[in-house]
Amino acid sequence: MQIAEDAVVVGYDGSDRSKAALHWGASLADLENLPLVVLHASGVIVHAQDKGVGNFDAGRANAQAQKIAEHGVELATKDFPKVEATTATSLGSASLALQEASIRARCVVLGNRGRGRISGTLMGSTAFNTSEHARCPVVIVPTAKADLPGPDSPIMVGVDGSEASLRAVDRAANMAGYTGAPVTIVVAWSKATKDALGNPPSGFASVDEASEHRKAGAEHFVDKARARLLERTPDATVELLVETGRPDEVLAKASADAGLLVVGARGRGDLASLLLGSTSRAVLHRASCPVTIVR
């Protein structure tokens, strides 16, 4: 499978959701003058032995996959004729094909669900597995919002002081520079509570004092993120949002009015061994706008 360096790779299967992802990916490729690769994986090889047992015609399966990918290229170049678009195909699963493509890609873009058997799920297995294992940023696009952010469609970026969230800030800064979209930096914090014996958290005279300390920490995170973003994109319009609540709930609520939500793959509270943190997982399921997962 040949993938151009720094290409925008879109997973395409002909479904409405993949068409939304294709539109988003082609828009990005056009805006940033990047190559576009439309990838279709037929999924006929599930296990290693499938290739040699003769359960399918490899030539026919590949020809069908190529036809679907070419259809995606036709759609993309119709709307964005200046984009250099090519196809890529695989007989394996979409998840594995996209993970392989992510090694060379600038980003991978796909719909939140494809043609899987369980249409009622909030996010399909391909979208989830790709978000968890890809080597580059992954963008999950819902059908309802397939346009890039812009002056009237802000970028929301979640921060918590972790390195991953700071890389998310860098990604948001780059997108703001290309699209002219304003950026809102979002942080969530939780109020302190008494322990089982009715005492305030250790080191604090009262629950209120501990809560003020947590709030000050959250404000420090957004101030640091704003300085970093403006260093990369000095002309960006930046707002700060410091909210109490669960991070995934705060971010999901913020995404209702956003053109793009950018989050790090793992935050401060996640185990280092996790490929995708709990907040990022939850946001993928709940956000109502395109979500970029940054490693």
TrEMBL record:
<feature type="domain" description="UspA">
    <location>
        <begin position="8"/>
        <end position="142"/>
    </location>
</feature>
<comment type="similarity">
    <text>Belongs to the universal stress protein A family.</text>
</comment>
<dbReference type="InterPro" id="IPR006015">
    <property type="entry name" value="Universal_stress_UspA"/>
</dbReference>
<protein>
    <submittedName>
        <fullName>Nucleotide-binding universal stress UspA family protein</fullName>
    </submittedName>
</protein>
<dbReference type="Pfam" id="PF00582">
    <property type="entry name" value="Usp"/>
</dbReference>
<dbReference type="InterPro" id="IPR014729">
    <property type="entry name" value="Rossmann-like_a/b/a_fold"/>
</dbReference>
<dbReference type="InterPro" id="IPR006016">
    <property type="entry name" value="UspA"/>
</dbReference>
<feature type="domain" description="UspA">
    <location>
        <begin position="154"/>
        <end position="295"/>
    </location>
</feature>
